[in-house]
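Friendly challenge for the regulars: who can give me the structure tokens for this chain first? No prize, just bragging rights.
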Amino acid sequence: MNQHSYLVGLIAPGAEFSVSSELHRREAARHKLRYLCRHLGSRRDFGTLLNDCRTFGFSGLSVATSTDHQVSAAMDGLSWSAARTGTVTTVIYETDGRATGHDTGMEAFTTAFEQNMPDAGLSRVVQVGATGAGVSAAHALAERGVEHLILVDTDPARASALAEAVNRHAENRPAKARPVETLDHHLKQADGLVNALPRTDSSDQLTQALTESLRSDLWICDLDYHPAAASLAQAARTLGCPVLQGGSLLVHAAARNFQLVTGRHAHTSHMLGDFADLTAEPAAHS
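First reply, four minutes later:
Bragging rights claimed.
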């Protein structure tokens, strides 16, 4: 008999929980499923939380990449994507109780990029930001076939560590870490730019520098889905650049999470409409 009721835990900051849980709830309603999301915070010991959720009958967990937990080591098994990136964004409790980790961020980036930028140049790509969702993006770009992947971060050690991790899995070893001071030089030669910076005061200054370096023949992927932080994407669109924004990535990740939990195909087009509605300015609903 098919299951019709699911309990899912979301480990994320409050704002991200609100959007993600509502995306899941609306998609579940379209499938006539009872789908309960519970905010579990982001400060508890993950091993304890994992076992508690298993005991209480959770179907799975969605883990924001912005949390501090290193969760892959706590898994009983890892999907191909999670094993490659070392990042777990979705936990599924199997029928035998085993917890399997998936990196839906890498899968979402791959799917959204293929759908929105099928003809994007991949000779040289600059990615700014080497943590959180940027880890999944870098691995996805290498898997996509980028020839030269320039990684820049305000912490050079983070960029170097990500380059090494990407190159361990990519036969052509495309990733190279470069200092922030060389960013403008590399952007002049790039086909595309990925903004994976977390939102901080220092990153805002770097984002402004990126905005001033845009060219009309540069494609842009901005991982930040918050409308208030969309200055880079807005400037890129004004120049006529192809743009893939973080909202699409969030939706594809939520859709993949929904599919893993329920075994049902998510209506991504409807979920994109849901996201637009959930993040619209209040005036848009008046």
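The chain has eleven helices and twelve strands. The chain has a mean pLDDT of 90. Your move, everyone else.
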